[in-house]
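Async update (no meeting this week)

Hi team, since we skipped the sync, here's where things stand on the single-chain job. The sequence we agreed to prioritize is pasted below, unchanged from the tracker. I ran it this morning and attached the output directly underneath so nobody has to dig for it. Comments welcome in thread, and please keep replies under the output.
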Amino acid sequence: MLNIKEYIKDILIDREMKQKIDFFSKVNIFNGLSRFAVGKLVTAMYSRKYEAAEIICPEQELGKALFIIMSGEVAITRQSGTRREDKIISRLKSGDFFGEMALLEEKPRSATATALTDGELYIIYKANFDSMIEKDPKIGLMVIKNIAVILSARLRGMINEGK
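Output:
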C-alpha cells in the first residue's frame, strides 16, 4: 500500500529538483549540458545562506569552490591604492557566479566577495567537481570549456577597456 506522506514527499522533492535544474540550466557556465547532466551537478552542490555585509570569501584566501547566486546580490571587490581601499569590480545577482577559477586550480582568490543583501548561494567544491569529472568526463569538459570562453570574454573586455 502506498504511503501518502512518502508520495507527497517524493512529489515535492521532484518538483524542487526540477526547479533547481530549470534555474541552473540558464547559468551560462552550464551551457550545452543536458538537463540530466545539470541534475548531476546539482546533486554535487551545497546551499548556503548569507546575510547582508557577510564576507563570502576574502581576497588572498585559497580558492576551493565556485559560487552560484540563487538569490541576493554580491559585490566583488579588490583592494587598490596605497591606502588599500576596496574598489568594487562588479555587482552580481541571481544567476551570476564567481570563483570559477577555483575549479581549475587552487590558488589565492584575486578578489573579495561580499553579500550586499541577504541571499542564497550554491557552492561546488573543486574536490566534488574533480570527482564528477572522473565519473563523467563529458560534463567536466563542457564546464571547463564554458569557463575558458567566459574568461576569454572577460580578458577581451579588459583589453578593450584599456584602449
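Quick observations from my side:
The two ends are 71 Å apart (CA to CA).
The chain has a mean pLDDT of 90.
Reply here if anything looks off.
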